[in-house]
Write a structure and sequence with these properties.
single chain; 10 strands; 5 helices; about 230 residues; alpha+beta; six-stranded antiparallel sheet; globular
Length: about 230
């Protein structure tokens, strides 16, 4: 059974259909939670990610003088490298977000997640626009969900309780440069009504490899039309 048809929380089969007057993903049997797809990250996995970010590493930087000293060995951590890549505005925004809050233990909170339709949003919203581009291009909507839960700052402290919408689309089978069959996949998310990120991906049927191209809302709409 495909992972997209199985709830990651309970392992029960999930299908798209109507129940209680609402269309969406439903478990075969009645349960006390909404379907969750994909891998659910454990506390141990999150701790390992944090540990890896701060592991000391080394990189080789070519010297300006060249021979006989070709490279300098420079120590770094992944966290430091990621912060260095951030724009000045992004760093200031992250510092501002964390500066006004203290590290606190997160209160127990169950993330509320449910399927939605385009009619749940304002016709002028970016969510409706991307949904319209997908459907007009003939793409299949594979997931359209809304959730409410804690929004965390860079240091792991809770900044707010935010609403998030995630929209997944699957395009038709197309050929890539090597003439292998691929499926185009697009993902977009919004936090508190504002576009939060998106990407387009081509999944190769033969090699199972996938490209991953981060896109803003305008670029995503163009990419979907180009791969219709």
């Amino acid at each position: 059974m495909a992972s997209s048809e199985t709830c990651s929380r309970c392992g029960q089969e999930v299908r798209w259909g109507w129940r209680d007057g609402r269309e969406g993903y439903w478990h075969r049997e009645a349960v006390d939670h909404v379907p969750i797809f994909g891998h659910i990250q454990t506390e141990d996995e999150r701790a390992e990610i944090e540990r890896q970010l701060d592991l000391p590493r080394e990189k080789f930087i070519p010297t300006k003088t060249g021979w006989p000293l070709l490279f300098d060995i420079v120590p770094y951590t992944t966290r430091e490298a990621d912060q260095a890549k951030m724009s000045k505005a992004a760093r200031e925004r992250a510092e501002e977000e964390d500066g006004g809050h203290v590290d606190v233990e997160l209160p127990p909170m169950e993330i509320e997640r449910h399927t939605v339709t385009a009619d749940d949003f304002d016709p002028r919203s970016g969510i409706r626009r991307v949904f319209k581009v997908l459907t007009q291009a003939g793409w299949e909507i594979t997931r359209f969900t809304a959730s409410r839960g804690p929004y965390l700052g860079a240091k792991g402290n809770m900044l707010s309780v935010s609403d998030r919408v995630v929209l997944h689309g699957r395009g038709p089978t197309i050929l890539d440069g090597s003439l292998d069959e691929c499926h185009a996949v697009a993902v977009a998310s919004w936090r508190d009504g504002g576009f939060d990120g998106g990407f387009g991906s081509l999944v190769n049927h033969t090699t199972k490899n996938a490209t991953l191209e981060p896109l803003n809302a305008t670029e995503l709409a163009t990419w979907i039309k180009e791969n219709a």
